[in-house]
Specification:
The chain has one domain. By secondary structure, the chain is mainly α. It has a two-stranded antiparallel sheet. Strand 1 and strand 2 form a beta hairpin. The protein starts with a helix and ends with a helix. The chain is elongated, with a radius of gyration of 20 Å.
Length: about 160
């Protein structure tokens, strides 16, 4: 089951896709994504109102995940203390992640194009860059998961759930 943080994360991804697809003039995809975003916003709002009104207990319907640490830092990035701040950070993380994924794909294509061991040895720096980008992707994923968990914690506090 999705948590509140999972829904917010999904909305951040959909909104980024809308932004990129509008720039690429993909109208049909944008229309579909805008419907998805609208449905997600409604689902998030409904959940918040239901929990606040006592209709839904998020402990029963959604698993609240959070590794209980306060000012968690990863590579100098601090998790914001508000849901809005976390959402903004998620958008930045996803944008960075997509850039890193594009870079790793280009590097992989270049590496795959090397046809002999001597050529591969001469381009050792490509392999080092590839590994650095892969590590950066892993760190972005870890930080994204921490942000989603923190959103769940903040939501739990908002609902004043035990």
């Amino acid at each position: 089951m999705r948590t509140f943080g999972d829904m917010v994360d999904e909305l951040a991804i959909v909104d980024l896709k809308i932004y990129h697809f509008k720039n690429e003039d993909k109208r049909e995809a944008v229309e579909s994504l805008e419907k998805d975003a609208s449905n997600l916003r409604e689902e998030i709002t409904r959940l918040m109102m239901d929990v606040r009104g006592g209709v839904v207990n998020p402990q029963q319907k959604w698993r609240i995940r959070y590794h209980d640490h306060k000012d968690h830092e990863l590579e100098g990035q601090v998790i914001p203390g508000t849901i809005g701040g976390c959402i903004s950070r998620l958008v930045t993380i996803h944008s960075t992640y997509w850039g890193l994924q594009s870079r790793v794909q280009r590097l992989k294509g270049t590496i795959d194009g090397l046809n002999s061991e001597s050529t591969k040895t001469a381009h050792f720096d490509l392999y080092e860059d590839f590994e650095k980008v892969q590590r950066a992707i892993d760190l972005q994923n870890q930080f994204r998961n921490d942000i989603v968990h923190h959103i769940d914690k903040l939501f739990k506090e908002f609902c004043r759930c035990p």
